[in-house]
Specification:
The chain has one domain. 79% of the residues lie in helices and 0% in strands. The chain is built from six helices and no strands.
Length: 181
């Protein structure tokens, strides 16, 4: 029983650490789409196997960081709770959580992570196209243009999610080994 308690403690510490890192990587200056949010959504659900907890942590972290970004980092002069299209961003990260929850280990986890990044890309950029202040026409050609314009932002998203997920997995493995020693 003691071993399971130590593993849970290590898992909880890594999960809380990932929440903090995700929050900081969103509000601090960063390369576009290079944050730990995807890892929080994916690894959180993969490691805890609790979809509700992963979704709550992801939504809470997004909401807090959005409040900071929208009202302190890039203030508009009036209070902004959510930006146009934020629901689609939240749904995109939720896709990471759902796939993380049902992913296995090894190759299955890697494929689920790639699937999550594709789902995030499709859902969040659909939201960009749907917003009332969209840069592209509200026609099929505009949707295609939105996806094409978003391609440069895809690689940092998938790389950061994979890197931060790997770091979280490594931290969990290290904390578990250290606790057992």
């Amino acid at each position: 029983m003691r071993g399971n308690t130590l593993i849970m403690t290590a898992r909880t510490k890594v999960f809380v650490g990932l929440i903090i890192v995700a929050l900081l990587t969103r509000v601090m200056p960063h390369y576009p789409n290079f944050t730990a949010m995807g890892a929080l959504a994916f690894y959180g659900a993969l490691s805890t196997r609790k979809l509700g907890m992963s979704l709550a942590a992801m939504v809470g972290t997004l909401m807090i960081s959005d409040l900071i970004i929208n009202n302190i980092v890039y203030p508009t002069g009036s209070f902004t709770l959510m930006y146009a299209g934020s629901l689609f961003t939240y749904l995109g990260f939720a896709a990471y959580s759902v796939l993380g929850r049902y992913a296995g280990q090894g190759t299955k986890a890697a494929l689920a992570l790639i699937g999550g990044s594709i789902a995030f890309f499709v859902i969040s950029n659909f939201g960009v196209w749907m917003t009332t202040n969209a840069l592209y026409p509200n026609q099929a050609v505009g949707l295609v243009a939105t996806y094409i314009a978003a391609i440069p932002f895809y690689a940092p998203e998938v790389v950061s999610t994979a890197a931060f997920s790997a770091l979280a997995y490594g931290a969990h493995s290290w904390a578990t080994r250290t606790a057992k020693a």
